[in-house]
Amino acid sequence: MRYANITGWGKYVPPVVMSNDDLARVVETSNEWIVSRSGIERRHYSHLTTGEMAWQAAEQALAAAGVAPEAIDMLIVGTTTGSDLCPNTASFVLDKLGAGNAGCMDLNSACTSWFYALCNATAMVRSGQIERALVIGAEHLSIVMNWHERSTAVLFGDGAGAVVIEACDQPSGLLHSAWSVVRDSREVLEMNGLGINPTNLFQAPARHLAFDGQAIFKNAVKGMADACAEVLAKAGLGVEDIDLFVPHQANIRIIEALAKRLDFPLEKIVVRIQEYANTSAASIPLALTDALEAGRVKPGMTILMATFGGGLTCGAGLLKWGERIEAKARAPITAASFNGNVFDLMQESFAYHGIDVSSLLSAE
Ligand code: ACO
User: Fold this and answer.
1) Cα 280 to ligand 1 centre (Å)
2) pLDDT at residue 151 is higher than 90
3) Which residues act catalytically here (predicted)?
């Protein structure tokens, strides 16, 4: 049998931090409200584009795997915030890496994009079509926030995570997966004003992310729990057989409700929402990379993943970790740096919503 082992992993975390207290200068909110309702303590906002973040995370994943860019056969960028609609973001990453022997594509299923990309790449490896793939999740959400909508503006951050998968003959990598869509729920989470259609192009409505928080909350818990039950049944395993759980990081209360529904112990769950907030497609590869760097992943572990996003799309997967848990090498950060604070960085985005940064800073 052929399998698709994860041999490399990496992340890009933007250096500019937006704390809850900083955010409270922009929207009517407080650190106490954000922490108690979401578990988020800070988020990172990017001066790089989605493509540049994806490239930086990919460099780390290749270095961790010890794989040359030319050896990659397929490169997939899972993202809802691709830097361009055409050409795709993946071709930018491919050019930057010099991965000239690969095919490349973007995949957009909202927050589930990286997981769905992993499912596709794994299937390509396991069916013998390719030997190696680079699967990246990257998002630049800070620039699509509506700074007049506090219930959404506090929940999101930017970042990228990536893995390298390679063909092998030992059972490892993604072994089982499940996907579903909650029908007739497209309006529950939308990127308003973005996308090619006559309204957006000719009437230019306001561009921002919008959602119905409570509808997402309920559907996310049920959708992820059902998907987890499906993959566990496919594998003939129970929750007691799972060593580590890496769920999508949207809200700590969603993760806690999911754990309760599955009767899964919280201490075996990787939670990084406090640091990154919801980074959509980047959330699981970021959390997985952090778990590896923190020594929480051990050789041979059985790892459960669960995800949901706009659509509403859901999914779950069972990973069998291989032998290696140490990166072979680290790559240097080669993207441009940023000199300034978060208010400098976000000036244009605030101005788009009619908010003047100097008035924010002087209103102390
Ligand atoms: N600061 C202070 N008060 C706030 C804030 C804020 N940032 N946001 C909302 N409130 C207020 C509301 O106005 C409301 O006030 P009211 O009672 O006077 O009307 C009160 O807090 C309660 O609002 P609720 O919406 O009932 O708060 P809830 O406990 O449901 O939490 C939240 C809202 C955090 C959005 C929650 O519903 C949630 O996390 N939903 C899931 C959202 C999500 O994960 N979205 C993205 C996922 S999709 C994806 O990952 C692709």
Assistant:
1) 17
2) yes
3) 111, 248, 278
Amino acid 358: pLDDT: 83
Name residue, tokens 């700590």: 252
Report the atom number in ligand 1 closest to the C-alpha of 150.
Answer: 7
Residue in this structure with the two tokens 């299923």, named with its chain if needed? 109
Confidence of residue 363 (pLDDT cuts 50, 70, 90): low
What is the whole-number distance in angstroms between the Cα of residue 213 and the centre of ligand 1? 6
Among candidate residues 144, 136, 140, the one with its CA nearest the CA of residue 45:
140
Residue range 39-67: average pLDDT? Answer: 98
Q: Is there a domain that residue 100 lies in?
A: yes
pLDDT for 67: 98
Does any domain span residue 116?
A: yes
Q: Is the pTM of this model over 0.70?
A: yes
Q: What is the CATH number of the domain that holds 17?
A: 3.40.47.10
Write down the pLDDT at residue 364. 58
**Residue 347 within any structural domain of the chain:** no
* Tally of domains in the chain: 1
In a domain, 22, yes or no: yes
Which structural domain range is residue 202 located in?
A: 3-324
pLDDT at 361 over 90: no
Question: Does the pLDDT of residue 346 top 80, yes or no?
Answer: yes
Catalytic residue among 47, 140, 208, 248: 248
Q: What are the backbone angles phi and psi of residue 263, rounded to the nearest 5°?
A: 55, 50
